[in-house]
Amino acid sequence: MSGVQDSLEIKFRLIDGSDIGPKSFPAAATVSTLKESIISQWPKDKENAPRTVKDVKLISAGKILENNKTVGECRSALCDAAGGITTMHVIVSQPPQEKEKKATNKLKQNKCACVIL
């Protein structure tokens, strides 16, 4: 195998269109490793930063990638172009606790405080 097939250049596209990377990953690296890299390189000025690997979903070629799969297993025929950079889309899910807190805060703010005498 040549060096091109042993590693893959990947950039991660965030929801706002900005990118993290590109960075080279070995074919044996797991999707979980990619997610850890995203968390460590997350831009400080961006909101909704993921806290754990479970907060991140990676999408490549229209498929959500599983944490236990390797980069080599997830590679599609489109990624095999020599010298090409693969773009994976990053989706960050908010932890359920934050969603519940926001919903509770909205309910409190919408209460009417009118007093009729």
Automatic annotation (TrEMBL):
<keyword id="KW-0564">Palmitate</keyword>
<keyword id="KW-0449">Lipoprotein</keyword>
<keyword id="KW-0636">Prenylation</keyword>
<dbReference type="Pfam" id="PF13881">
    <property type="entry name" value="Rad60-SLD_2"/>
</dbReference>
<dbReference type="InterPro" id="IPR000626">
    <property type="entry name" value="Ubiquitin-like_dom"/>
</dbReference>
<dbReference type="InterPro" id="IPR017000">
    <property type="entry name" value="MUB"/>
</dbReference>
<keyword id="KW-0488">Methylation</keyword>
<dbReference type="InterPro" id="IPR039540">
    <property type="entry name" value="UBL3-like_ubiquitin_dom"/>
</dbReference>
<keyword id="KW-1003">Cell membrane</keyword>
<protein>
    <recommendedName>
        <fullName>Membrane-anchored ubiquitin-fold protein</fullName>
    </recommendedName>
</protein>
<dbReference type="GO" id="GO:0005886">
    <property type="term" value="C:plasma membrane"/>
</dbReference>
<dbReference type="InterPro" id="IPR040015">
    <property type="entry name" value="UBL3-like"/>
</dbReference>
<dbReference type="InterPro" id="IPR029071">
    <property type="entry name" value="Ubiquitin-like_domsf"/>
</dbReference>
<feature type="domain" description="Ubiquitin-like">
    <location>
        <begin position="8"/>
        <end position="74"/>
    </location>
</feature>
<keyword id="KW-0472">Membrane</keyword>
<comment type="function">
    <text>May serve as docking site to facilitate the association of other proteins to the plasma membrane.</text>
</comment>
